[in-house]
Amino acid sequence: MLDTSTAKTCPAHAPADHPKLPAQKVGILLANLGTPDATDYWSMRRYLNEFLSDRRVIDYAPWKWQPILQLIILTKRPFSSGEAYKSIWNEEANESPLMTITKSQTTKIKAAMHAEYGDQVMVDFCMRYGNPSTPSKVREMVEAGCSKILFFPLYPHYAGATSATANDQFFRALMKEKWQPTARVVDPYFEHPKYIEALAQSVERAYGAMDKKPDILVCSYHGVPKRYLMEGDPYHCQCQKTTRLLKERLGWDDTQITTTFQSRFGPEEWLKPYTVDEVKRLAEEDGKKHIAVIAPAFSADCIETLEEINEEIKESFEEGGGERFDYIPCLNDDDAHIDALSTIIGENLGGWVP
User: Is residue 6 part of a domain?
Assistant: First the structure.
């Protein structure tokens, strides 16, 4: 993905024996959550161990958490998680859908950036967990002459367990560099007009292809423990604002759209309402027989959308008496999404490139 073939030259006015250096560029490093390399037990265990050992994700004291993780969770969960990944795995490319989609997003953004800025910029992607790792891609960019790096976590909404841990890993990578590049981090874009427009277009396109409009649109966001909100994490508020802005752009009222949270883990209370329970309640108590679900917090379809929403959450809705369940895919590499991301990148490159 990254072109490191640029010829190296001596800096102007340097002595003849000065080491040759690549031409200086601005690196644009996209970052997503990550993916296991394969679905077998050991690949899944390595990935889950890295993910669930992150104190941003599970902030319990290591002396309490690690014995539970190593001796109980990681002896069983790699099998069940592996089966879940197998159900969505891209067999042709031998990779997860998240990897396939992130590669496509990067290719399209790279084309847009090169059309705008030419060889002044270099575009690549990394993962917080698994491969390609953040440190490996920072190292490649520095070696390729990137004296400045714009780091872009592909999470519309800020959360400690997503944006913050991605940033942590990026800055840890910078700590290893003798000559650190200047760095910028892209802000969350949960209210950016082009992101909201891309979401709205995806809903309008999906609804336009249906013979009957759903009774309600469920905006299902990845959950976090409620305690994180009480401790100052802005994620919940940003999710609510995205739903409101989407509702306003679509010209709907409150009865046509709702916000829920999915992917609970552990014993404590998480943000509510829980998607898996709410869709069942919508069918049982509110008589909603046809719903659509969208996942605005995910920039690319992954295990939480393709497996959890399309299987577990759909089953819960049907158990409650629901009849038709439509999942609206993530924005993925849709042109409107690529345009939104490219616009955000351009706004954050101010002063770095003409």
Answer: no
Beta bridge partners of 257: 217
Model confidence pLDDT, tens digit, residues 281-319: 999 999 999 999 999 999 999 999 999 999 999 999 999
Give the pTM. Answer: 0.93
Which contacts qualify for 100-104: CB closer than 8 Å, 24 or more apart? Answer: 101/300, 101/301, 101/330, 101/332, 101/333, 102/30, 102/32, 102/127, 102/154, 102/300, 103/1, 104/332, 104/333
User: Which phi and psi angles does 313 have, rounded to 5°?
Assistant: -70, -40
- Domain carrying residue 45: 37-86
The alpha-helical segments, DSSP class H, found in the chain are 41-52, 62-68, 74-86, 97-117, 134-143, 165-175, 193-208, 226-230, 235-250, 275-284, 314-319, 335-348
Query: pLDDT for 23-33, tens place per residue?
Result: 899 999 999 99
- Give a yes or no: residue 280 inside a domain: yes
The residue among 171, 175, 153, 170 whose CA lies nearest residue 162 is: 153
- C-alpha distances (whole Å) from 328 to each of 52, 201, 210, 324, 331 are 29, 11, 11, 13, 9
- Integer Cα distance of 269 and 83 in angstroms: 27
CATH of the domain at 286: 3.40.50.1400
Q: Coil, strand, or helix at residue 67? A: helix
CA distance 98 to 85: 11
